[in-house]
């Protein structure tokens, strides 16, 4: 995926494989499978170029990251149930209450 | 004519005053596991009672038992049939809502997981952990039968020490293990199944809080209360671009205050709560089933 984001033009499986070969040892078929999966997930787009497919990222990395963050931070409506967040944000007053409860806990630890 | 009235009253009590009262009480937070069961029992009993009221009303309008023939010229029979049709409509609506929420939630979650998998870096600390290069402190989990993920942002890692991070991960893993998302899904479906003027989000909100408490309890048993409480404060107190301010005391305050208190062993309270849940389910079921059983017995003898 990084290779596709870095490249302005669409890449074939062979090109991605060659770029990756310098840093990692990956089988050609592995690269092919990964790219195929990414296309099925609509994270890449592909077009026929003769016998081979040419892949390009469906959206820039920043755009996907923004998508993800919007999804993760969305507190309204239906989407909430898709992720279970550890904790949401609180108001200033509540933050004060939180610190108070925490210091109570710290005191217990010292005395107990 | 008393059965439909009784069931209707039961349904109304279980949709209005009972949840409101329960949501205002503090004791359910002492026994979150039993309280989740009680909320589920209330929801299910309310649905059963409402449907049962419709069926019983239809029966009592249609006239004497032993005359099962439907007579289209009789107004009573037509009214009875119309009521039954409405009951069927409610059932279909409910099933539709359950299906829609299940499919929709899974689709959104899958899309989100795909994004996480290309954007975040795997971390071997626990299985399925992904670290997201974002400054906003975030920690959440993506439940799934297979390939569940726990996502933590770099912003969150910066604010947590080792023991706090462990507590957060234990909390999220508790969610994943116990599939708390399925509980929330039920209440979401129920919430969507009914028109705006009868539904309230009390049950859903309470279920959300209670599953957090359950996961907190699990993390507390593993790592003690302090790291978890500190992690909660560290992540909740962090400034966020779009912090929605809760008017009432939010679940976060409740959770930290609860961790500051002693670990409760409330076996009696929890037993009573379970018993109440069981009674709630048995009550409408018997009321609906009794006349049917009686009719069968009468027919056989």
Automatic annotation (TrEMBL), chain B:
Domain Peptidase M48 as annotated: residue spans: 130-186
Cofactors required: Zn(2+)
Pfam families assigned: Peptidase_M48
GO biological process, one term: proteolysis
GO molecular function: metal ion binding; metalloendopeptidase activity
Keywords associated with the record: Hydrolase, Membrane, Metal-binding, Metalloprotease, Protease, Transmembrane, Transmembrane helix, Zinc
Cofactor binding summary note: Binds 1 zinc ion per subunit.
Transmembrane segments: 36-57, 78-99
PANTHER family: POSSIBLE SENSOR-TRANSDUCER PROTEIN BLAR (PTHR34978), SLR0241 PROTEIN (PTHR34978:SF3)
Family under the similarity heading: Belongs to the peptidase M48 family.
The name this protein goes by in its record: M56 family peptidase
Organism field: Kribbella sindirgiensis
């Amino acid at each position: 995926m990084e290779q596709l984001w870095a490249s302005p033009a669409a890449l074939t499986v062979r090109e991605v494989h060659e770029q990756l070969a310098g840093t990692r040892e990956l089988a050609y078929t592995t690269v092919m499978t990964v790219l195929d999966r990414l296309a099925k997930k609509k994270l890449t787009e592909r077009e026929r170029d003769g016998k081979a497919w040419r892949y390009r990222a469906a959206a820039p990395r920043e755009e996907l990251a923004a998508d993800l963050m919007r999804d993760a931070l969305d507190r309204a409506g239906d989407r909430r149930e898709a992720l279970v967040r550890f904790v949401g944000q609180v108001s200033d007053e509540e933050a004060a209450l939180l610190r108070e409860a925490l210091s109570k806990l710290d005191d217990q630890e010292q005395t107990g | 004519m008393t059965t439909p009235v009784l069931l209707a009253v039961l349904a109304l009590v279980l949709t209005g005053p009972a949840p409101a009262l329960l949501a205002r009480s503090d004791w359910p937070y002492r026994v979150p596991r039993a309280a989740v069961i009680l909320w589920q029992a209330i929801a299910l009993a309310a649905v059963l009672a409402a449907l049962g009221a419709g069926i019983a009303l239809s029966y009592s309008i249609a006239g004497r038992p032993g005359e099962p023939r439907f007579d289209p010229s009789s107004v009573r029979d037509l009214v009875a049939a119309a009521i039954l049709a409405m009951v069927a409509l409610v059932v279909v609506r409910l099933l539709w809502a359950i299906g829609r929420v299940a499919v929709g939630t899974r689709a959104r979650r899958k899309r989100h997981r795909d994004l996480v998998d290309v954007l975040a870096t795997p971390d071997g600390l626990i299985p399925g952990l992904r670290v997201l290069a974002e400054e906003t402190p975030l920690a959440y989990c993506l439940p799934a039968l297979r390939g569940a993920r726990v996502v933590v942002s770099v912003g969150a890692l910066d604010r947590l020490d080792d023991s706090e991070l462990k507590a957060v991960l234990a909390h999220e893993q508790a969610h994943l293990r116990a599939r708390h998302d399925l509980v929330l899904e039920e209440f979401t479906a129920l919430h969507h199944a009914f028109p705006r003027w009868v539904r309230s989000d009390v049950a859903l909100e309470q279920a959300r809080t209670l599953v957090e408490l359950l996961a907190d309890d699990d993390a507390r048993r593993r790592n003690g209360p302090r790291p978890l409480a500190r992690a909660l404060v560290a992540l909740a107190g962090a400034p966020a671009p779009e912090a929605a301010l809760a008017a009432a005391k939010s679940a976060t305050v409740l959770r930290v205050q609860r961790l500051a208190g002693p670990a409760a062993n409330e076996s009696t309270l929890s037993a009573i709560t379970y018993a109440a849940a069981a009674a709630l389910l048995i009550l409408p079921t018997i009321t609906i089933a009794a006349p049917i059983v009686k009719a069968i017995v009468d027919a056989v003898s």
